[in-house]
Structure formats: C-alpha cells, structure tokens
Specification:
The protein is 68% helix and 0% strand. The longest helix is centred in the middle third of the chain and has 26 residues. The chain has 2 domains: 66 residues; 163 residues, no CATH class. Helix 7 packs across helix 8. By secondary structure, it is mostly helical. The protein is built from 12 helices and no strands.
Length: 240
C-alpha cells in the first residue's frame, strides 16, 4: 500500500458528507493545526505527490490535522517508564560509585541527553511498523502520531544538553557559545566526543527542517528521513 493510499483511508475526502457535516469542527481543527505548527514544529500539511499512482487524497490543512489532533489514548506510559528507568539506572550508578558531578549544570544536561536518546530509540523502533506495537498503540495511525511527537520532543530536549553543559561559562557569552561548538581535540577524548555531539545536533537540526518546514515530494523526503540513522549513530559515538 502506498503512503498516500494509507493516508486516504485515515481522512475523509473534501467532497464527502463527513467532511461537510461539521464546519465548526473543520475551523477548530485548522486552528489547532496552525497552533501546533507554531509551537510544536508541526508541519502545516502532509505533502501528497500528484504523481503518486495510488494517491486518492487531496492535501489540505484540515485533513493533515486529522492526523495531528487526536483524543485517543496512545499508551505513553511505557515510553515514560523507559525514560524513568534510564534516569534511575544513571543516578543509581552515580550513587553506587560515588561519582558525583562537581558542576551542578551537568545533571540537567545529562538528564536531557539520556531522555532524548531514549526517545530517539523509540522513534527507530516505531518506524519498524512491528505489528505488536501497532496493536499496543491502537493502530498504525497512532504509531505514526507517537513517532512524530517523539521526534519533535527529542529535538527540543537534546537542545538543553549543550546549553546546560556550557552554562558554567556564563556570563561570558563568547566562551558560552564557543563551548557549544567544534573544538580542536589536541588528543583530548572528551573534545573528540563533543565534536561528534555537535555534528549529531547539526545533522538532526537539518533533517528536522527538511521534515517539518520544507515541503518535499514524498520520495525525496523519505530519503532524507533515512539519514536519522546517522544521527543515532553519531549520538552513540558521542556517548562513548
């Protein structure tokens, strides 16, 4: 089944009675779609290429909002639990080895990086379209929504990581910004890891821009989206 055909099964056509029956609902959905675009990096529409042989769906802001505004429970508990367990293991190891940070800003920085990493791993797992996960989350459309939201959240959360790491340089703004950029390693493995982290953040930001702000034909967007695997790989190298 093509992607456009799958979307067409999830949303009513503009000429259907279902679509015409609730004008107030349409306006409310369009408003929510605009708000989510402004504050949550939500794309204003789902790009449906006209050349797609299976496409019977006409792109519009409302129909995209049908995919972004949902009142159905999506079982976020398991995802939140994995983040909580990761935090517990991290803090437990710090306590067991008595390896506490001297810089207090490193705690929120580390918590942000661990949380974003867990969410990125969830995005990768959800992209496999495993039937068990589809059943658990309530269908492929719900898996898509969870995957999309986790991707947004992981991006915003990971931005906190370099900000808190460089916070000890404040109020020296020059040193603050330099501490978040590429550094000459000079044999220092910490700076090597920092450079991998900066590269991962730049690649992730570029791919987020292509995914959410720049409308692309589906076949091009799909190829750019596959590069998120590189982001995950750079993040893993950065950690170790």
């Amino acid at each position: 089944m093509g992607a456009c055909e799958w979307v067409s099964r999830l949303t009513p056509r503009a000429d259907s009675p279902t679509f015409r029956s609730n004008e107030a609902g349409h306006l409310r959905a369009k408003f929510m779609n605009g708000v989510s675009t402004l504050f949550f990096l939500e794309p204003p529409f789902f790009y449906a290429p006209a050349a797609c042989p299976t496409c019977r769906w006409q792109s519009s802001g409302f129909e995209a909002s049908m995919l972004t505004v949902s009142r159905t429970k999506q079982h976020w508990q398991i995802i939140l639990w994995t983040v909580a367990v990761t935090w517990a293991l991290w803090l437990g190891s710090k306590w067991y080895f008595q390896d506490w940070f001297t810089d207090p800003f490193k705690y929120p920085a580390k918590a942000a990086s661990l949380s974003a990493m867990v969410l990125m791993c969830w995005c990768t797992v959800l992209s496999t379209r495993w039937r068990l996960l589809e059943d658990f989350f309530g269908g492929l459309d719900k898996v898509y929504q969870v995957h999309k939201r986790l991707g947004r959240w992981s991006f915003w959360i990971i931005l906190l990581h370099p900000l808190f790491l460089a916070a000890d340089q404040l109020p020296k703004l020059g040193a603050f910004f330099m501490d978040m950029w590429f550094r000459v390693p000079r044999g220092d493995p910490y700076l090597v890891g920092q450079n991998f982290g900066v590269a991962a953040l730049l690649v992730m930001g570029s791919l987020i821009a292509f995914t959410l702000w720049i409308p692309l034909p589906y076949h091009i967007w799909k190829h750019t989206h596959e590069w998120f695997g590189l982001v995950l790989l750079l993040m893993i190298i950065h950690i170790f």
